[in-house]
Amino acid sequence: MSNHNDKTWWKPIVHFVTHTFVGSVIFVIIALPAYGLGELVHWLKAHGSSEYVVGVLTLLEYGIVTIDAILLLWHLVTTGITAMKEADQ
């Protein structure tokens, strides 16, 4: 009979890898519309759309990707800290 409180060295690693994978998948899901927006901007430029519209859409694209990347990094840092705390227990 095993004790449910047994600590294994690999559990924090598995948690970190799992959270990293899920966070990366969410990053890609959010980044894909930004990529599509970038493609739309290139298409609009090629078809003579107004510079203002192109500029606003470009700014929106940059904002989406930047915030998405910052949040992924935040998630990785907090997940890493949690995994280290879990390993110490």
Based on the model shown, name its key terms.
2 helices; 89 residues
Average the pLDDT over all residues and give the rounded result.
Answer: 91
> Structural class, from secondary structure content?
mainly alpha
- How many beta strands in the DSSP annotation? 0
Q: How much beta, percentage-wise? A: under 5%
Order of helices and strands: HH
Rounded Rg:
20 Å
Distance between the termini: 22 Å
Which regions have little confidence, pLDDT < 50, spanning 5+ residues? none
The helix tally amounts to: 2
> Describe the biggest sheet?
none
Helix content: over 70%
Shape: rod-shaped
What does this structure look like?
By secondary structure, this protein is mostly helical. The chain has a domain at 31-88. Helices cover 83% and strands 0% of the residues. It is built from two helices and no strands. It has helices spanning 11-46, 51-88. α1 runs antiparallel to α2.
Question: What layout of secondary structure does this protein have?
Answer:
Elements: H1 11-46, H2 51-88
